[in-house]
Design a protein that fits this description.
Layout (H helix, E strand, L loop, with lengths): L2 H7 L5 H12 L16 H16 L3 E4 L5 E5 L9 E5 L13 H16 L8 E5 L13 H6 L5 H5 L9 H8 L18 E7 L4 H5 L3 E7 L1 E10 L3 E2 L11 H17 L6 E3 L3 E4 L5 E2 L2 E10 L2 H21 L3 E10 L2 E2 L2 H13 L4 E6 L4 H5 L5 E6 L15 H19 L2
Parallel strand pairs: 3-4, 3-5, 5-16, 6-15
Antiparallel strand pairs: 1-2, 2-4, 6-14, 6-16, 7-12, 7-13, 8-11, 9-12, 10-12
Helix pairs in contact: 2-4, 2-13, 4-13, 9-10, 11-13
The structure holds (2S)-amino(hydroxy)ethanoic acid (HGY) and manganese (II) ion (3 copies).
InterPro entries: Amidase_Cbmase, Bact_exopeptidase_dim_dom, Peptidase_M20
Cofactor: Zn(2+)
GO molecular function: hydrolase activity, acting on carbon-nitrogen (but not peptide) bonds, in linear amidines; metal ion binding
Length: 421
């Protein structure tokens, strides 16, 4: 092996530098409990985006912002005409999110850039580190919005016209933070495809930590169906209205919410059912609720299972209006099938873990990720590392710096193998 290849083979990221970047980024939207609240396309998201752009420009990258606000930091390759080898994730968080969900994948990509620059390594193909817009789907639905537009899961116009609970549209929010880019966002409109895409992420569950294993070779991800449910009855006075004459939307809705969990329990081991948001109208203690809006998040490892859960929900909703004097509307707002990542890239992660001296485990992601959509356009795989007690989407989310470093090393070498040196 010649000297240059020998150098590349021994390349390693700088773990403390990676940790420092994560801690600095985590200050933007830091919460008292040690988490991060940085909702998509807010002023805090702008600050985090600006910080990422500045860090990448300091590494000599060019920056591309597309029409849905996705950011692509590009390190040129010797053969700049080749498709880029991509990585990245998201920096928007849940309202009570942590420092690592999404942010780790973006900072690990930045650490790859810094390591290549530090050692003067030129890759054949260009390298791109991405920040995908509104992955969490917390402020704006659908979830994984930027990568969904990129892969034509839904149109740019559909995404731009989604609005948050205050009625602010994605289009307005992008303009307000100065990230309404001008390059095509969708592959079908000319957005470049990657030669390969790898995403590093914390597992957000307990499997790796329980097994004492540092690297997860992610073979795929659960499919998801999200719904907005509205149960309508009639507001009335909590005192004079006899129990038998009420059209209590909340009492009826609680039965359907129970069914969401019961349906998932009937589809074990892979079925998941969650009611995450509930809005009661008028939400006054002495008014019988006239309307309840709640969300449903269904997930399953196979599409037939997901479809069976959908049918069970719709049947339960139909039965509800037969049992109670209410109307029920169920609107599906997100759907994507379970995804299988690219076997050759998953194998590259296993061998990268072996090379890094880490045990690895094949694992299916219960969470959705931008890689799920990118996989529709290019060879794609994910690297998981454990998070403390498997907790995520929680301000106490935590991870071991040495695990984050190991995952970034596997990412570095998997990308180098594809980019060529
Ligand atoms: O919901 C998810 O799986 C991801 O956190 N957006
Ligand atoms: Mn995430
Ligand atoms: Mn998340
Ligand atoms: Mn192995």
């Amino acid at each position: 092996m010649n000297d240059r290849l020998a150098t590349v083979a021994t390349l390693a990221v700088n773990g403390p530098r990676l940790w420092q970047s994560l801690m600095e980024l985590g200050q933007l939207g830091a919460t008292e409990k040690g988490g991060v609240c940085r909702l998509a396309l807010t002023e805090l998201d702008r600050q985090a985006r600006d910080l990422f752009v500045a860090w990448c420009q300091a590494e000599g990258c060019s920056i591309r912002i597309d029409q849905i606000g996705n950011i692509f930091a590009r390190r040129p390759g010797v053969r700049d005409d080749l498709p880029a080898i991509g990585t990245g994730s998201h920096i928007d968080t849940q309202p009570t999110g942590g420092k690592f969900d999404g942010n780790y994948g973006v900072m690990a990509g930045l650490e790859v850039l810094r390591t290549l620059n530090q050692h003067g390594v030129r890759t054949e193909a260009p390298i791109e580190v991405c920040v995908w817009t509104n992955e969490e789907g917390s402020r704006f639905v659908p979830v994984m919005m930027g990568s969904g537009v990129y892969c034509d899961a839904f149109t740019l116009e559909h995404a731009l016209t989604r609005s948050d609970h205050e009625g602010v549209t994605v289009r307005e929010a992008l303009a307000a933070i100065g990230y309404a880019g001008d390059v095509p966002a969708a592959v079908s409109a000319g957005a470049p495809r990657f030669g390969a895409y790898f995403e590093a992420h914390i597992e957000q569950g307990p499997v790796l930590e329980d097994a004492g294993i540092v690297i997860g070779a992610v073979t795929g991800a659960l499919g998801q169906r999200w719904y907005d449910v509205v149960v309508s009855g009639m507001e009335a006075h909590a005192g004079p209205t006899p129990m038998g004459l009420r059209k209590d939307a909340l009492f009826a809705a609680t039965h359907l919410m129970q069914e969401v969990v019961n349906i998932a329990m009937a589809h074990q081991p892979n079925g998941r059912g969650t009611v995450g948001c509930v809005h009661v109208h008028p939400n006054s203690r002495n008014v019988i609720p006239g309307k309840v809006e709640f969300t449903v998040d269904f997930r399953h490892a196979d599409d037939a299972g997901l479809l069976a859960m959908d049918a069970a929900l719709r049947q339960a909703a139909a039965e509800l209006s037969g049992r109670f004097p209410v109307q029920v509307n169920v609107e599906q707002v997100v759907y994507f099938e379970p995804v299988a990542f690219t076997p050759a890239l998953v194998e590259a992660i296993r061998t990268g873990a072996d090379r890094a001296g880490c045990r690895h485990l094949d694992i299916v992601s219960g969470a959705g990720h931008d890689a799920v959509y990118v996989a529709r356009t290019a060879p794609t795989a994910m690297i998981f590392v454990p998070c403390k007690d498997g907790i995520s989407h929680n301000e106490i989310e935590d991870a071991d710096p040495t695990h984050l470093e190991a995952g970034a090393n596997v990412l570095l070498h998997a990308m180098l193998e594809r980019a060529g040196v």
